[in-house]
Design brief:
199 residues; elongated; single chain
Length: 199
């Protein structure tokens, strides 16, 4: 019963996020918003550049996907189901700006860049990598690594386990902060790219 719930939850969550992406792409003109410097929601205007309602809907999409990763990880009955569900949601979070932002073509044409995507997209990908790992949890990652090694009948010593634990603990502490920092950098870079595209 739980595996059916997870199988239904993921497409439903992706449908909601896709609908929000479609709303952003169709109804928010980011270039004019960046030119006019429309303020974001009051509590976001202190932290993020003025991009109107884009940041709050973008953050809502990201939070829906990250909470989906957390729920799938906790509800799934097997490690494989948790891993596959989390990977699907994590990969969808990577393509989120491509679905939300209609102005990427104008940004790339203005910039004359040899890059495939704008700089803000790369910051977003780094951010989502760190945030997805934070929400998936390093304890689950440790269990997956150890199960994989034990399934292949590796002899694992106590010092090896200690090293894996320390590495994963060190990664967990700053990963949320690094993810939020790169999210901020992606929003600032997007604002700058939109202003340059409008000139």
């Amino acid at each position: 019963m739980v595996s059916e719930a997870v199988a239904l939850f993921i497409p439903l969550l992706l449908a909601v996020v896709t609908a929000l992406c479609s709303f952003l792409r169709d109804s928010v003109d980011l270039i004019s918003t960046a030119q006019e410097q429309r303020p974001s929601f009051p509590f976001l205007s202190v932290f993020l550049p003025p991009l109107g309602r884009f940041p709050i809907i973008h953050i809502s999409n990201i939070l829906l996907l990250l909470l989906g990763i957390l729920i799938v990880k906790d509800v799934a009955t097997s490690n494989l189901a948790a891993l596959i569900g989390s990977l699907i949601l994590g990969l969808f979070s990577l393509i989120l700006p491509i679905l939300e932002i209609n102005e990427y073509g104008q940004i790339l044409n203005q910039k004359g860049s040899g890059w495939f995507h704008p700089e803000s997209y790369y910051y977003h990908c780094i951010s989502m990598g760190f945030l997805s790992l934070s929400f998936f949890g390093f304890v689950e990652l440790q269990v997956l690594i150890l199960n994989f090694l034990l399934a292949d009948s590796f002899a694992i010593g106590g010092s090896f386990l200690w090293v894996i634990n320390r590495i994963l603990e060190i990664m967990l502490l700053p990963s949320l902060g690094i993810g939020l920092l790169f999210f901020y950098l992606s929003m600032v870079a997007l604002s700058n790219e939109l202003r340059q595209a409008s000139q």
